[in-house]
User: Which sequence fits this backbone?
């Protein structure tokens, strides 16, 4: 099939499979690829060159599905279409094997080019998500607070140790959780200490004291 003007020529043998997604989104994805001369294969081909995985959000279930897809098709370019994702979810999607992430709102403009780039071995993300894949930039004080959270201190104990108001500690925690893309203390500690996917204790600045 001949691609529409404005699109690069696709390799004649490139095959694409579509996984997941609501019916309307699946139609949009198929139409975007069709316009680029890259139709989605019917059924569930065993070894396509690229897989487009559509999900509303990159939650635990979606990430598990990505890991399974990567294990099943280790050589395929894996492109994710989703509505949005927090910092941690983006990093975990890449760790799960995603080669590209395309926002659902930009399927028509960006999907075909992203599939081609991923198939050529490139990593593709929305430009505004650049900070979501970088190591979280915590301030020295935030590192201190996070270190004491990991050690098991309460907000009041952290405030006493650092000579801060408890409300200030809470403000630091709000900022820390947003930068790490987590919902609370336990997730923050797990993200630091996870031996395989964690940030590592180098992100901390601990002021002494015995772990609890």
Assistant:
């Amino acid at each position: 099939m001949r691609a529409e003007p404005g699109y690069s020529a696709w390799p004649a043998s490139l095959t694409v499979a579509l996984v997941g997604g609501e019916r309307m989104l699946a139609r949009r994805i198929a139409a975007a690829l069709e316009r680029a001369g890259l139709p989605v294969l019917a059924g569930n081909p065993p070894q396509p060159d690229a897989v487009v995985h559509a999900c509303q959000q990159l939650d635990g279930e979606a990430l598990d599905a990505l890991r399974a897809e990567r294990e099943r098709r280790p050589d395929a370019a894996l492109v994710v279409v989703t509505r949005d994702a927090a910092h941690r979810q983006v990093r975990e999607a890449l760790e799960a094997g995603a080669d590209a992430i395309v926002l659902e709102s930009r399927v028509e403009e960006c999907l075909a080019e992203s599939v081609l780039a991923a198939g050529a071995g490139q990593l593709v993300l929305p430009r505004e998500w650049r900070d979501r894949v970088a190591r979280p930039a915590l301030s020295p004080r935030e590192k201190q607070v996070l270190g004491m959270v990991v050690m098991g201190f309460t907000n009041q104990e952290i405030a006493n140790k650092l000579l801060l108001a408890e409300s200030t500690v809470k403000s630091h925690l709000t900022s820390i959780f947003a930068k790490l893309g987590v919902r609370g203390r336990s997730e923050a500690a797990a993200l630091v200490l996870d031996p395989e996917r964690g940030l590592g204790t180098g992100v901390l600045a601990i002021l002494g004291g015995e772990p609890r």
